[in-house]
Sequence to fold (416 residues):
Amino acid sequence: MHLGRYSFGIGDRFGRQGRAQLAALIEAKRQGVDIVPVWNKSNREHGIIGTKPADVRNEADAAVQAAGWGGAYFVDADHIGLDNVEAFIETSDFFTIDVAEFTGKRARSADIDSFVEGWRGLVGSHRIDGIREPVELDESRLRDIAGTYLAAVRQAGEIFRHVEARKGPGRFITEVSMDETDAPQTPVELLVILAAIADEGIPAETIAPKFSGRFNKGVDYRGDAAQFAVEFERDLAVIRFAVERFPLPHTLKLSIHSGSDKFSIYGAIAAGIRRFDAGLHVKTAGTTWLEELIGLALAGGDGLGIARDVYSQSLARIDELCGPYATVIDIDRRKLPTVAEVGKWTGEEFAAALRHDPACPIYNPNLRQLLHVGYRVAAELGPRFLAALDRYEPTIAENVTANLYERHIHPLFLVG
Ligand SMILES: [Zn+2]
Fold:
């Protein structure tokens, strides 16, 4: 089972916008680019909203039917480990195996010895097409890298085999994610990690390394974009080198997590995948629900009232809401508007402050990040919020589709 060359993480907090999201992919297809939708919702998000993995499957199936989507689509068990995979087995056909917590845990020395023995052929100086300087690996470095990553990859193998035993071989897509580790992986580390993944027999379709810079939720990349471009192309080069030599799927590609809204690196990503003729998977940060808020604000009336209420309650509960996301948001509290100020805004002003348009002078990334974690408040509004989503559906859908197509799909997959 293969994922396809380009794929994009979709789905949303409240499970209402699948059809509007598919409309963006249908437009891409009309422009000649096939992108496979992958619904994903993390365990954390399920806990806060009170949904179950089966709800995501139902939403995906219903949206695909309603939109008349004829292509492949998947439902991702996002960032799972052995302790929480069970709830996802039946309804997911894509498993993102997260072994970040095993990274740095030392493998048994006998395991390291046999790994180093088996991959002695990797010791030396490699000319990797696409990387200017030779990639050097001596035995002690090989041993060090195995010491850092082997236990994590072994764990990934264990999770993969567990899922495979339950679902059957070839019945699901596997991603290995290492994006939540502390340090980015160097090219030579990625090479050794891929060797270990091949050793474990994991037919990984995607791998999510950690890149340098910050991938905060719902806002632009923060870091050195030129440095990112170099890292990204090196990773592409290493993957191309590895799939030609190791028993790995030839379709293995990079996966970028929290990839929505990273406008300042989309040019580098688009250029990289073209230069290397590579595929790409992009996961998003679940910001579609912010388009719902934008749609509500623009609709005016009770829609704008709900948008203001979500803001005022989020501001009052800022510590509680930001807690679970502390490492992936950066809010400058001095730059948050007061409830009184927001109370005077028109729907257009509310939408402009929230919409991720860096060129707009009143766009406020602090407000955007706070509202992004404020979905718990919207969930607690319950029927009032959900009824407004139904009532203002056309305005909301328009914003959901435009955000996905114009700000994400187009710059990533349709330029050049
Ligand atoms: Zn991730």
